[in-house]
Amino acid sequence: MKSIEEIKDKIIEIITPVVKALGIELYNVEFSKMRSKGLLRVFIEKEGGVTIDDCERVSHEVEAVLDVEDPVPFSYVLEVSSPGLDRPIKELKDFKRYVGKTVRIITHEPVDKESFFVGTLADAGDNEISLLMPKDRRVIIPYKNISKARLEVEV
Known about the structure:
Blueprint lengths: L3 H18 L3 E10 L2 E9 L6 H18 L6 E6 L10 H6 L4 E10 L2 E11 L3 E6 L3 E6 L3 E6 L4
Parallel strand pairs: 2-3
Antiparallel strand pairs: 1-2, 4-5, 4-8, 5-6, 6-7
Helix pairs in contact: 1-2
């Protein structure tokens, strides 16, 4: 039997072109198994924001293609949603996309004696990010030192 990661990878391979054909970006996929049922969460993103109609369209199309391809050997529940305003930032392309936005970063190892930062993402290079902190302080954090990163909801 395939591992959960192998199933997830196959799902991503199958649904990415379907989601893209709808003019929507596949942001992330989470797949887990609880007892006899699985939970497949598909997170989508679109310029200007994701609507309920977008989620319904993606859910309908993804469900149809997964029914045909049948990559999951047990029953599961499909959820389609936006990653939310305080979405996690995981990939280099996402860091680059959110330059100029307020982010929350937690590091594995302290940087300037701190491990928790909230600041403006000033730059996202190939190896590190630059945060503009209060009082014009700038902090450089290598990607490999980032434990968690997410957008802060700006009110």
